[in-house]
Amino acid sequence: MVAAHAPAASPGLSCCVVLIPSLPPGFLQSPALKMHWVLLASLWLLAASPTFSIFQKPTGSPATPRLQYLLEPLHTAVHTQRGATATLPCVLRALPRNYRVKWSKVEPANYGENVIIITNGLYHKNYGPLSPRVRLRHSHRYDASLTITDVTLEDEGRYRCQLVNGLEDESVSLTLHLEGVVFPYQPINGRYRFNYHEAKRACEQQDARLATYQQLYKAWMEGLDWCNAGWVLDGTVHYPIINSREPCGGRLLLPGIRSYGAKDKQRDRFDAFCFTSALQGEVYFIRGHLNFKEAGQACRNHGATIAKVGQLYSAWKFLGLDRCDGGWLADGSVRYPITTPRQRCGGLPEPGVRSFGFPSKELRTYGTYCFVGT
């Protein structure tokens, strides 16, 4: 046997020796045979030696840095509702001599972070719009957990607890999830009328905000099926389909979230997917044959206001509001919430908020849904 050595390996790479069978004397005298054997030996080397594989990983690659001072949280997601108090855990395993802990909210749309609070263990300072509603829990000397009171729809997202210790720092990330409901929304003048900014404003006017893609996906998993495309918070456009059908991407496509991707926020026009969470109040129905103006006055006579679309969805989702009567809402639409589907209440098999659209505001056919805060 003849030992053929592979070329010297780069630092950190393994090398090997490949054994080639010995040949009879005079076997390589023919130039053609000599060239044939050189090619064969080269192929043998390449096949036998992992040194030359593009998948070879250098030895001594740096490992993922481990946390030295911060404890890894048991759960990185905290679930809450609007109006509740939520705590994002951040606990130190040891106290460095000089350190600071900085909490911030990650804002992907702006490619940055908004600082919320900074502490050195003795003193702290709050920053930004969350300032009046946040504090450090401080249940013990190692506890730097962040408590948010009166949670709002805008509080949902990713947060970072960062320990700064001289030139070194480490951090943990946590996500605040709000339990809620996603609903499609379009204005009185028909579908595909909103640019991005108008869609965002329309949701806010209905006690909601533009849904995130993750919220829309969760709603689809729970049964949302809607054939009109709508804006979501990151400026992309989608629609969720449970039952594949011809007008909604075709029968051959599997159920899922159909996507148009990112669109021009000024020029392109679609509907909106809004998200709302638990109510801080109550929605109730006033029976009658009222036009839109009379409906608003009827609510005011009871110390309430005419309910918004998001408030009706929230009452249906969280309070189980079930009413087989169409009623006026603040945007001029007429809707009614059904938690127990039945034939005489729309005839649809799934629970949901049914809509009569936007009838003439002079029509005296419906009652009204009112909202009173707590």
From TrEMBL:
CDD domains for this protein: Link_domain_HAPLN_module_1, Link_domain_HAPLN_module_2
Domain of life according to the entry: Eukaryota
A cellular component term, taken from the record's GO annotations: perineuronal net
Coiled coil: none
Ig-like domain span: 65-173
One Pfam family matching this protein: V-set
Disulfide bonds: C227-C248, C324-C345
Gene3D superfamilies with a match to the protein in the record: Immunoglobulins, Mannose-Binding Protein A, subunit A
UniProtKB keywords: Disulfide bond, Extracellular matrix, Hyaluronic acid, Immunoglobulin domain, Repeat, Secreted, Signal
GO biological process assignments: cell adhesion; central nervous system development; glial cell differentiation; positive regulation of neuroblast proliferation; skeletal system development
All residue ranges annotated as the Link domain in the record: 181-276, 277-372
PROSITE patterns cross-referenced by the UniProt entry: IG_LIKE, LINK_1, LINK_2
Gene Ontology molecular function, alphabetical: hyaluronic acid binding
Compartments, record wording: Secreted, Extracellular space, Extracellular matrix
Protein purpose: Mediates a firm binding of versican V2 to hyaluronic acid. May play a pivotal role in the formation of the hyaluronan-associated matrix in the central nervous system (CNS) which facilitates neuronal conduction and general structural stabilization. Binds to hyaluronic acid.
PANTHER family: AGGRECAN/VERSICAN PROTEOGLYCAN, HYALURONAN AND PROTEOGLYCAN LINK PROTEIN 2
Family: Belongs to the HAPLN family.
Protein name: Hyaluronan and proteoglycan link protein 2
Organism whose genome encodes this protein: Phasianus colchicus (Common pheasant)
Lineage of origin: Eukaryota, Metazoa, Chordata, Craniata, Vertebrata
